[in-house]
Amino acid sequence: MIRDRRDLDLDPLCRVLATLGQPPGCRSDRDRRAWLEEHDAEVSWVFDQAPVSVAPTGNVVAHLQILAPPTAENRLVEAVGLPSEDVLVIGKLFVGAVGHEDGIRRFLLREAVRVIRDRGAVPVLDLSANPGLSQSLCEKRGFVRVASAEPGTLPMVHRESRGTRSGVQ
Containing domain of residue 74, as a range? Predict the structure, then answer.
């Protein structure tokens, strides 16, 4: 089940990150915890492997954040060419090696897009900042790659299925 991240989830998330060797440059749980908490996110979710949706177990195996500019990378917002107030950024999406990783990724991504669209914004992400995502998965979920002059940035923007607010089809 997807639920809001709690402080109690940070230690298990740090263990997941350690097994994934993520994020680059973080060598301790203290560094990983700081990375998880570095932004004041609009949404911070975990995927809890609880058998029912009413009783969180703390068995968290995945994470995702939704960030609003200026918290999100300004270079990413500039690359997609939309006003910052029209954009919400999907970031820090990772899934531990627990089986069904692809299904968890798809579920988290789908729900993030739904929440962002419900808020009237356009979902964007930087593929290079979300090593758990592949370009093909994102494309299957409605994202298209956008050219960027910024080295190391792989921006993707979600195609509008309702209207053409972003101009991206």
Answer: 2-158
